[in-house]
Amino acid sequence: MIWEVLTHVIRGWDASGDTDTTFQAAVSDMLSKIDPGLHIGSWGQIQEWKIDMDVMNDTHRHLSNLYGFYPGFYISSTHGFNQTVTDAVATTLYSRGNGVEDQDTGWGKMWRGACWALLNNTAEAYGELTLMIQNNIAPNGFDMYSNSFLQIDANFGVTGNVMSMLIRDLDRASNDSRPQVILLGPAIPPAWSGGNVQNVRLREIEERRVGKECGSSVDLG
């Protein structure tokens, strides 16, 4: 998270109008020295801590060690979607369970679902989405925790999960000048076949790379 804050400062420097070049240099220097933050542990997991102390099958609802995969971008933008990293992400997700065991939160399921979608695992992504709707959504459409109070982050998470299933459009490091790469339909389940989505907003898309499909709608068939 600290890495992403610093890289956003550098990326947006020209647009910010800030003239404090001493501060800019300090941020750049700090960014070059900060710990990479990605360590694969003894049982193949993305470590949550700098030392290898994660407990296998700890079904805690949080996925703090996967923040850099989703909703952040550090893991994917810096290390790519190579097999070693994606296997470690998947191992972490399987170890943390489906979100039911620890307080059965709706947002915990949606966080998992979005990560699974970015791994192109349709079954797990769609499974988390449907499980959240079955377990956590009240008749009024709100996510209710313990049938007593609203957790709106889970409702917002539904959108994040669904969009991650429809398109992979991740942020990038500040020094990455390559054209924005997207993947259409990384995790579209059979239940959605024949549908379409309209007016999806993407980052810095070049027409020659994705064609007119992203202009207004994407066919899910």
Can you give a write-up of this model?
There is one protein chain. With 221 residues, the protein is mainly alpha-helical. It is 44% helix and 6% strand. The protein contains ten helices and six strands; from the N terminus they run αααααααββαβββααβ. The strands form three sheets. It has a two-stranded antiparallel ribbon with strand order 1-2. A hairpin with a 3-residue loop joins strand 1 and strand 2 (149-150). Helix 1 (2-11) crosses helix 3 (21-33) and helix 6 packs antiparallel against helix 7. The longest helix has 15 residues, at 122-136.
Q: What attributes characterize this protein structure?
A:
globular; 6 strands; 6% strand; 44% helix; single chain; two-stranded antiparallel ribbon; 221 residues
State the helix count: 10
Chain oligomer state = single chain
Percent strand: 5-15%
- Helical content class: 40-55%
Largest sheet at a glance? 2 strands, antiparallel
Radius of gyration: 19 Å
Low-confidence stretches: 205-217
Mean pLDDT: 87
Task: Please give the order of strands in the largest beta sheet.
Answer: 1-2
Distance between the ends: 37 Å
N-to-C SSE string, H for helix and E for strand = HHHHHHHEEHEEEHHE
